[in-house]
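Hi V.,

You were right to ask for the full record rather than a summary. Here it is.
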Amino acid sequence: MNLASGQMEGIGSLLLKQKKIGVPIYQRNYSWDEDQVRDFLNDLFSSVDSHRPHFLGCLILQDVEGDSGNIEIVDGQQRLTTVFLVLARIQDELSRLSREGVDSIPGDGDELERFPKSDVQKLIFNKNIANPRFLSNPLIEDMFREKILDPRRTENPPARDTKQKAITLPLRKAYWRVEKEIQDRVQRIPNGVDQLRYLDNLLEAVKSLQVLCITTKNQEESLEVFLTLNNRGLPLGPSDIIRGQLVQALTEGLPAEKVKEVHAKVFNDWQKIMKQFDEAGEQRGSIDQFFRYYLLATGTTKVGAKKAPKEMDIRIRNKQHDGRMIERSVEERRSEASRIWKEVQKYSKIWITLLQPSDLGEDCEYHLRILRHISDNYRVLLLNVFRSDLSVSLVDKTEVARLCAVLTLRWYLNGQGAQDLETEFQTLGRDFLSSESAPDLIAALKKLSRISPPLDSRFKQGESLYAKAILHGIDRALAKKEGANPMPWNTSQLHVEHIAPDSSTENWVQCLYPGENPASYLDEGDKADTYNDLVERMGNKTLLDERLNLRAQQLLFDDKKAKYEVASANITRDLNNILEDWSEAQIKSRERWLIEMFNLVWAPESPEPSRLVQYSKWRKLLKADDLS
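Predicted structure:
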């Protein structure tokens, strides 16, 4: 798809070219609030006053296969719905003036007499009132067509909607806002003909709204454009298309009333899912990620983010029969979609548990939080392990979570790729669903975790993402051994501290490289790179509370100790027991200690507490020549 092929045009000419513009079933419901509607109207009124067209943004339209002249709006339904609310209100005001005997604007000079009501109805309807050009979201379609667009209606959208309530509320509020704003402006004008002229100018401003229109050929291409453009607001995601696929299958072949009932139920179910995500502080992309991992956890194929809707379509439509894939009947598709939708709701709750664990015990919750910090792909496996119907004990869940963290850290420190690890987790999950044996899964995780990463080289890099988890795990294990309360895992309040600062200073260069000219390390060049490589090693890193980290910064080691003394991390307070200056030898020595502790704490087998020791005590056990 060539995005540069988008065409700029006015809304008026765009509408007149189409027989119907429909909102597909997978789209979200209309959701603009009053502020968004007011902002849109203010832009429109400014366009009337300035006689300059307003740019409305990008519209992505998708051809309806085998139906020339009909298109679906993939992106822009909120704006286009609001445009038709305005057109409908203009139509109402023009109908009122017509009943008062004012229905045309006299020609001026060579100009012909104009009939704005006819003009607006040509935009709203295709040939007759029974064929509106715009079919709104299916959830609100009846109210939109019967109580907003139809000029023959006897009532407007009601103040209360006892049947659909929350579903139609944003539309009803938007309608009332549009009605009030336009009425206020029209009624300030005392003369009926002048009111007509104002409404005609407002109609021209609507027709001249400029849009960048991109037309796609199919759903997959539409999603590709969406994910590339990242339009303002909440752009369509794979989850929206998947939800639409399920609704389409759930309602296929059903009578109209039953279709409405299913739409309302799925809408309410979806609102509950989204509320869970919102309350957990999850961003919009998390629901798309959830659907991808759900498909991975419940299937055998590889599924990329953009391919998730295609995979869901295959699952709904096809089934295995005599070793080959055949298409399901309509009834079978409805049944399969119903099963999947129930399963999605169940898995969404598990997803939230993995991201915001509670009531699982301190150890299990700790490792789930560590996992969330360092990776995503463990969820492919844990979505199944944490299913309530599989009766995995909390002890086994805790051990599986711990081993997932161990495997993930060792995998990445070994330089292996995230996609390969995701494949391993998917395979483990598939085997677990077949056997439902937690002991077998634990044994398989331990076997995979027995990777011997080249820790010397990887630890030299000391990547902050993994450094925080590694250091915190070691600190936690030492605290437990010493009978102290482990430091809470708080990623926002806990920083990875460079003992020797990552930005070189003259005094710190003299500490690390005594006798050398500090200036040569302060400028760009080989020696500056040597300094940077040294301070980024894991041995030069510890954990420090945010408030202390900001104060420590580039202080010398003896001055930093005052901050370290009140740190939350045991391994940081322990640095006060180091009497010598901080040096290159100290960094390398502490790195050896960290590697030893890592291999005890982040290991397939649970750590042996007696072998865990703080750095200051560990140094005393070494011979003097081992420190060189």
